[in-house]
Amino acid sequence: MKIAFSYSTVVLYVVTIITGGTSWYAAKLQLTDVSPVISLIYRFGCASVLLLLITAISRERLTYTWREHLSFAALGAFGFAVAFLLIYKAAALITTGLIALTYSSVILFNSVNAILFLRQSISWSVLVGAMAGLTGIILVFSPEFLNNEWNWTGFGYAIAATLAFSFANISAVQLQRKGVTVLPMTGISMGYGTVFLFSYAFLTKQTFDFDLSPTYVTSLFYLILFPSVIGYTTYFAVVGRLGAERGAYTMLLVPLVALAISSVTEGYRPTIWAIIGTTMILGGNYWVITTKYQPTVKTDT
């Protein structure tokens, strides 16, 4: 069955890429005297309320079983709490463009987690793509490593955030298989993520400060409205229209937007090895996406 790629789908696709690519630098602007945990509570708490209000106005279902709520909680914990806490920690140590590039390897992690949790098979071609992506990441970071500026901690945070987001993707797939639609899934999961963040803030005795500077307020408003409310909604809408394999193509283009912004705002200058590494990462991801979901063609014998 062919899937119609309408103009509205193109708009959703482009919006997803732009909001995702610009969110990385906006998140960096949140690193002020306000704790990152508190900033995340403001961001996802407000975004969750907006999404649930839209869901209620749209008269979509808001009552679910306790098993579905477990999946919501898993998605919120990994996708909107753990992953973003680690991203903020990484952003304090390495450029946001490099974090976004590392984050794009979530497609490779998804392949492994699909085997473990969704009982899907994996082919040798997927392993080739994974190896190409991992090699590319090493090449991107090679200048810092060779100049004794390698930051293992920042890179470790970025990889851990990617793994956490991959676990969140598994929960999202499970929820969509049960017929849960985009708005309530995103809104409820963000609500759970906010609860987890609030619990973490309470246990670590975080202070609920607020920065009234134009930079902080503007970036917070941007993160709430565009990447959180609009970006996640359009992403899952694209996945619903085109399927997970085609919707995941956004992950190939988001890092390019983030790296372009990073080169302007953070002075990031890619070396020849970084360019080669970037090509290998994106190429590896493309290979994984196009081969993993390739249908088997039967021939008559």
UniProtKB/TrEMBL annotation:
- Membrane topology label: Multi-pass membrane protein
Keyword list, A-Z: Cell membrane, Membrane, Transmembrane, Transmembrane helix
UniProt lists the family membership as follows: Belongs to the EamA transporter family.
Name assigned to this protein: EamA domain-containing protein
Localisation per UniProt entry:
Cell membrane
Transmembrane ranges, per UniProt, are 7-27, 39-58, 70-88, 94-117, 124-142, 154-175, 182-203, 215-235, 247-265, 271-289
Q: Report which superkingdom the organism of origin falls in.
A: Bacteria
Q: Which InterPro entries match?
A: AA-Vitamin_Transporters (IPR050638), EamA_dom (IPR000620), EmrE-like (IPR037185)
Where does this chain mainly localize? membrane
Tell me what organism the protein belongs to. Answer: Photorhabdus tasmaniensis
* Residues annotated as domain EamA: 10-141, 154-289
